[in-house]
Amino acid sequence: MDRETQRLAQQTMAFVLAGGRGSRLYELTDRRAKPAMYFGGKSRIIDFPLSNAVNSGIRRIGVATQYKAHSLIRHLQRGWSFFRAERNESLDILPASQQLDNENWYKGTADAVAQNKDIIEGYGPKYIVILAGDHIYKQDYAQMIRHHVESGADVTVGCIEVPRMEATGFGVMKVDTEDKILDFVEKPADPPAMPGHPDHALASMGIYVFETEYMFKLLAECAADPDYGHDFGGDVIPRIVREGKAVAHPFSRSCVRSSMEKKAYWRDVGTVDAFWQANIDLTDFTPELDLYDNEWPIWTYSELTAPAKFIHNEEGRRGHAVSSMVSGGCIISGSSLDQCLLFTGVRTRSFSELQGVVALPYVEINRNARLSNVVIDRGVVIPQGLVVGEDPEEDARRFRRTASGTCLITQPMIDKLDL
């Protein structure tokens, strides 16, 4: 990073919108917000945008929380408490209920920023980057900020390049050859194509760069509109497209890749299938996301645990794992694992067979269980002899089974079983 880009990052505050439930994850977000969901064996989803900010040289960060925020706040307090005020660093947790002169709930993404105007302005950042707290990716925000400054834009919108007809669920940019946004369409049936790439479209990542002073002036003007919906994607960005200069920033220009990563990686793990697949993909020989890249570390809260242990070496009762990731504190006792990802403190007992299992922290899997293509919520105790993944009708009756065959297992589901 050159000195000018570093200077721009130091003048910037990151504001992470981390209040969403993620309802398509169903029971997984009954007790936690989507940004607090576990990912990759050790991390939470929010660790990715926060790590991107820190690794980009941004050391002023605010995190707006809302739905089921306790586990998220606890994680931030435990894992992200290394910021030092004397080094001009800060991480502020901003619950929706703290601004008592407003309605307690954030009305939308733009309202979450507007309600914290005094806190943001107290730090005096020249620029602000608005981030979604619920996607998996590695990006150098400093490069995007520099693009914003050099282009003279009122707002710069981070975009991913996707096959055109897969963009129907996104906010999509119609741009000219200079990246100026000509139109911003939410979830279009016929997405506009990229210039020179008729089969691809630019979809919004929910990342926006503004000059702070301009942004608050604009939010105040928008608030005077009786039809204002308090949302960046639905209200603020379309207004700038009509009245000012909005510029698209393709993710490929600032994504971070190690020598092991062949293409830019960005995932929305907002469904049970997507969550399962993205975690299982990490067990590949050369995964598309390199978590072993020490040059762009993903910071998180690391519990103090003993190393993983594999025990028993008898025919049919051998503790072993193939193409799997096993976290600290796990004990694989006489069990076989194939393409599994186990979070901290998972215990598997003798004669159990696991294939395609994503087990969140402190799951217990008892003897003779046979599990395939499942996500197991934190702390679930799998009873002895349970079989999942072999009878679709039985699985759908007892658990939440997706159309693709992934089963989500929670403790209340286990408690209802007639065993």
TrEMBL record:
Domain Glucose-1-phosphate adenylyltransferase/Bifunctional protein GlmU-like C-terminal hexapeptide: 306-409
This protein's pathway: Glycan biosynthesis; glycogen biosynthesis
BP GO terms, sorted: glycogen biosynthetic process
Signal sequence residues: none
UniProt catalytic activity: alpha-D-glucose 1-phosphate + ATP + H(+) = ADP-alpha-D-glucose + diphosphate
Domain of life: Bacteria
Keyword Secreted listed: no
GO molecular function: ATP binding; glucose-1-phosphate adenylyltransferase activity
EC code(s) of this entry: 2.7.7.27
Site annotation Could play a key role in the communication between the regulatory and the substrate sites: residues: 66, 105
Name of the top EC class for this enzyme: transferase
Keyword Nucleotidyltransferase: yes
Domain Nucleotidyl transferase: 14-283
Keywords of this entry: ATP-binding, Carbohydrate metabolism, Glycogen biosynthesis, Glycogen metabolism, Nucleotide-binding, Nucleotidyltransferase, Transferase
Record: residues binding alpha-D-glucose 1-phosphate: 106, 171, 186-187, 204
Xref: Pfam families: Hexapep_GlmU, NTP_transferase
Family: Belongs to the bacterial/plant glucose-1-phosphate adenylyltransferase family.
Subunit field text: Homotetramer.
Role: Involved in the biosynthesis of ADP-glucose, a building block required for the elongation reactions to produce glycogen. Catalyzes the reaction between ATP and alpha-D-glucose 1-phosphate (G1P) to produce pyrophosphate and ADP-Glc.
Name listed for the protein in its UniProt record: Glucose-1-phosphate adenylyltransferase
Gene: glgC
